[in-house]
């Protein structure tokens, strides 16, 4: 009988923190600047420059640690990780090895096999590297240090996961927590969340772990899933053919669905960590921890429970809305203004999701304000616009967040409540469509639909269909 | 009076009184440099035109009453490991032969704010690694008292410049004695402040946990005045201490008092054992007797662990240096090898060609003691010994206000004598090194000459933040 | 000499420190490092049980910056000393295969 293998997976997840400035200098962390425009002597490793820690990074790291049930290391330090690479301007990265800020946490995930707890070994703070671009023309590489020194936290899990499904559930859970904290936008494709997969296989029932490999360059859930499957197969094949798995770092190529070892004789992988003498230790008092704990937001589970009792909306909708912190905030803030949870939910679940899907956007990218959504709901309630017009207005609001009241006014989209004008239009439609009128009068009730449509067209959509119906019946 | 005979403080007073101008002083210094530099080679980089222009600008401000500090108008020499905006900063290394900083070190900024005028950059042991200024890539500096001898190091250029009148005072840096030892060899005053007193921002790091910037001056009064100007709490240096607000103890010139009555001075027996030159020993003990005659209570005691300071120091300093010097890779600034094949070859060629032998020796040692399998046995062990050494000093300062001893076991050796045996050179740091490990302040001041006419230095060590005690005792000794 | 530094060790340290030594330099480095380590071994004589390693000598802690942008576009200064530059970036030998 063929041997049965179990996959053992641990993750190292890097999250770029959404601070305004870098971890050790006053340079902006904003995306998209021209090369090296967000740099200074500190983040480019100029001789004589020194790092000074951004307080907000400590706050954010602690917040994530507390939300993942970690113990805060009240006396923590930074260490230097020494390795030469052009994206690393000092040729050492300031990180934490000996006393990381958070340890011994866990998060609960749900998979098709039920609930499971994934242990968090530690969370540490560190600086990001710069960006290397290959220059085909000169056959060289170019370095841009705009990202150098952007604060990261690295969340290191225990080897508690056994399948790609669990890995994805764990990542989704982390992303949700970090997004709810506002600590990062956690976009895999933009690199603000990056996962390295440590994977080994062993025979089912084995006591000890097999030799693991570390896989890098995984930019999507799809890539993670493929890489896990591919690496599991590769390792099993090695073992089945009597070979050994080598402990190494491998780079995943999603296009080729293949990973290759990133080995070089110049990479000793001996980082010579030691405490950074330029950065005094951090002492985190009980008061400081309490302060961060007190300012934690309501997380998804609590939110879902509250929505169930507070709002009369379907459980499915609650699931979708709370799946994004931004969507949930938008929902709550709009409801606070207009007091109509059902209608707000309908707009979010209907038109909003439709447009997000159509444009391939994340809920985090929604730009319209709760005030404007509430105004639009008000316009529909007061019958100032009909639902068709409201949808058109919404589409514009989704794109550019304008004030729907002003927009409707300016574009003359308000429903015409002038009975005289409507009557005139109806009379004209009756005159122009004798056949339909005859059909209706002859008992074909459905014929009135065509006449309503013609009237709406004549009114350029700005009539209330109910009123049109009523007037038509009167005049027929 | 000969304009070059003024001390820094006297010169500034004379400028304010209109007796001389800052431009006169700079011109006098430059002509002295013309006379002596061929023999001494104290400077690596100078810009005469710029120095005279800056002196003229300062003179104008003094006349307008915009500058009235104690150093206004005084020409200063700056060690070449302190960044100076727009002026080449080489650390006496080939790897930084063309490096022009875009900002100035905080200590230099403070001096310039006070009206001091930078003459140029002084020679040093490459990256401050050495005790003779012979490891410089830009030639050796010679001792003004006898040019067959070294000036000491690593701030040898700064000490020689002060001794030769090629500046009124200088800045140096001290990682294991690099201010005090050359001050001793050149017969000038040198002070290493408490760690964190002078911002390290803009000091090209050697051993970050040990490095401090300090003054080299003609006398104790200048030393106090310069220290008062360069000591500052700098938010750009996380290890900088806010002394002004917390202790109000940075009014160093207030300690220029001729009185040591009742001051308790301990002499460590361990500092007077084997290896100490007889003439140095006699001069230092004579100085102790003179302080006792002035009313100080002087006694011998046992400061333990002295023999362990050097191995602990070289482990820690080499480890930090190996990391601090990684940034010199031919990518962002400085030297890049002319030909190479690929990235790693470029790193290796650039660094092997750019660094001198002593720097490479320490980088390799530092990389080794941090490497996998050796960290605990070497680096961590050294950090524990450092803690023990600090404790030994704490015990001593529970009993004494000051510790008195020699600066170096001998006077300045002849050129070429030390480099042949690195370990022997390292042993010469035995009296200065533990001060850096413990972060303490210490001063070196002249206390006579040996039979060859070479200066001998007296070292006073105080507890953290007690520079004023050092200055008071040094001033009192100098006065007698 | 108690510590004998092998060719492999010197080679390895050369990879870590990015230094390529000539044969002559290698022999010298082996001897120097061996002697220094013999000397450093003196530390082993001390009983350091229970002693906390001291990386920072003064009891300074919690030194922070506030999260406020203070730096503007300094790219010109950043690149001023670059041995190789193109399109406002540092030019380096290619890093991808």
Q: Would you spell out the secondary-structure blueprint of this structure?
A:
The complex is a heterotrimer of chains A (476), B (480) and C (97).
Chain A: E1 5-16, E2 53-54, H1 55-67, E3 71-72, E4 75-76, E5 79-82, E6 92-95, E7 102-111, E8 114-127, E9 131-135, E10 140-144, E11 151-157, H2 164-181, E12 193-203, E13 213-216, H3 221-240, E14 249-253, E15 258-261, E16 274-275, E17 282-283, H4 286-294, H5 300-310, H6 315-322, H7 325-338, H8 341-359, H9 370-381, H10 387-400, H11 404-410, H12 419-432, H13 434-441, H14 447-458, H15 465-475
Parallel strand pairs in A: 13-14
Antiparallel strand pairs in A: 1-11, 1-12, 3-7, 4-17, 5-6, 5-16, 7-8, 8-11, 9-10, 12-13, 14-15
Chain B: H1 8-16, H2 22-40, E1 43-46, H3 48-63, E2 75-79, H4 106-113, E3 117-122, H5 156-163, E4 169-174, H6 180-186, E5 189-192, E6 212-217, H7 220-230, H8 243-246, E7 264-268, H9 278-293, E8 297-301, H10 306-324, H11 343-354, H12 357-370, H13 375-399, E9 402-406, H14 422-427, H15 433-437, E10 442-449, E11 455-462, H16 467-479
Parallel strand pairs in B: 2-3, 2-4, 7-8, 7-9
Antiparallel strand pairs in B: 1-3, 4-6, 5-6, 5-10, 9-11, 10-11
Chain C: H1 7-17, H2 23-40, E1 64-65, H3 75-79, E2 85-86, E3 89-93
Describe the structure.
The complex is a heterotrimer of chains A (476), B (480) and C (97). Chain A has 476 residues and is an alpha+beta fold. Chain A is built from 15 helices and 17 strands. Chain A has helices at residues 55-67, 164-181, 221-240, 286-294, 300-310, 315-322, 325-338, 341-359, 370-381, 387-400, 404-410, 419-432, 434-441, 447-458, 465-475; strands at 5-16, 53-54, 71-72, 75-76, 79-82, 92-95, 102-111, 114-127, 131-135, 140-144, 151-157, 193-203, 213-216, 249-253, 258-261, 274-275, 282-283. In chain A, the strands form 4 sheets. In chain A, strands 3-7-8-11-1-12-13-14-15 form a 9-stranded mixed beta sheet. A 3-stranded antiparallel beta sheet of chain A has the order 6-5-16, with no helix packed on it. In chain A, helix 5 runs antiparallel to helix 6 (315-322), helix 9 (370-381) packs antiparallel against helix 10 and helix 14 (447-458) packs across helix 15 (465-475). The longest helix of chain A is centred in the middle third of the chain and has 20 residues, at 221-240. The radius of gyration of chain A is 30 Å and the shape is elongated. The N and C termini of chain A lie far apart (83 Å). In chain B, a hairpin with a 5-residue loop joins strand 10 (442-449) and strand 11 (455-462). In chain B, helix 10 crosses helix 13. The two termini of chain B are 23 Å apart. Chain C has a domain at 7-44: Histone, subunit A. Chain C has helices at 7-17, 23-40, 75-79, and strands at 64-65, 85-86, 89-93. The longest helix of chain C is centred in the first third of the chain and has 18 residues, at 23-40. Chain C has a two-stranded antiparallel ribbon with strand order 2-3. Helix content of chain C is 35%, strand content 9%. In chain C, 28% of the residues are buried.
